[in-house]
Amino acid sequence: MLVVTDDRLIFLLFKAQNQLKNYLSSQLAAAGVRITVVQAGILFLLKDKDGRTMTELSHVLSTDNSAITGLVDRLEKLRFIVRKSAPNDRRAYLILVTPRGLEEVAKAKRVIKTVNEEIREGFTPEEIGAFKRVLNGVFERFGKS
After folding, report:
1. Which residues of 113-141 are buried (b: 16+ CB within 10 A; e: fewer)?
2. Per-residue DSSP letters for 41-53?
3. DSSP state of 124
4. Any domain includes 79
5. What is the pLDDT of residue 3?
6. Summary mean pLDDT of the chain
7. Could you tell me if 13 and 56 are in contact, meaning their C-beta atoms sit under 8 angstroms apart?
8. Is residue 3 in a domain?
9. What is the pLDDT of residue 90?
10. Domain residue limits at 98
11. Per-residue pLDDT for 1 more than 60?
12. Residue 16 pLDDT more than 70?
């Protein structure tokens, strides 16, 4: 087991994030899931509330609009989402998940759930609670609302 003695918390957070993202990406690919972790995030949001705007997706995912545009373009090419003109704003588009997108996000959800369970392995409920409190503290201090 690797013991981390480094006090550079930002470095450690980014390193953990990158390792987790790479691991999750490899698990998704191994399961035949055709979307990335971030694309899955968009589909999860649309599954929860279909017809979101790109600005809304950008805000919820804390990602700039240009990045969301590229992600939506790729999801649209895969026919996992469609764009529909917003009835009250000609410049805006509503993003709608397709049945094919719902199937894909269901496959992704199974993999993500398994990886989430793997993260918990070897930790007590108290340790998981402390970890969540630390992460929530970071969100509260540095997140934009």
Report:
1. eeeeeeeeeeeeeeeeeeeeeeeeeeeee
2. HHHHHHHHSSSEE
3. -
4. yes
5. 63
6. 92
7. no
8. no
9. 80
10. 17-142
11. no
12. yes
Residue 36 lies in a domain: yes
- Find the mean pLDDT for residues 35-42: 94
Which tens digits make up the pLDDT trace of 85-119? 988 888 889 999 999 999 999 999 999 999 999 99
Q: Is 106 left (phi over 0), alpha (psi -120 to 50) or beta?
A: alpha
Torsion of CA 15, 143, 96, 84, to 10 degrees: -120
Q: Where are the alpha helices (DSSP H) in the chain?
A: 9-30, 37-48, 54-60, 65-77, 99-120, 125-142
What values do phi and psi take at 8, rounded to 5? -80, 90
In a domain, 10, yes or no: no
CATH number, position 124? 1.10.10.10
pTM of the model: 0.84
Number of domains in the chain: 1
DSSP string covering 12-33 = HHHHHHHHHHHHHHHHHHHTT-
Residue 69 · residue 52 · CB < 8 Å: no
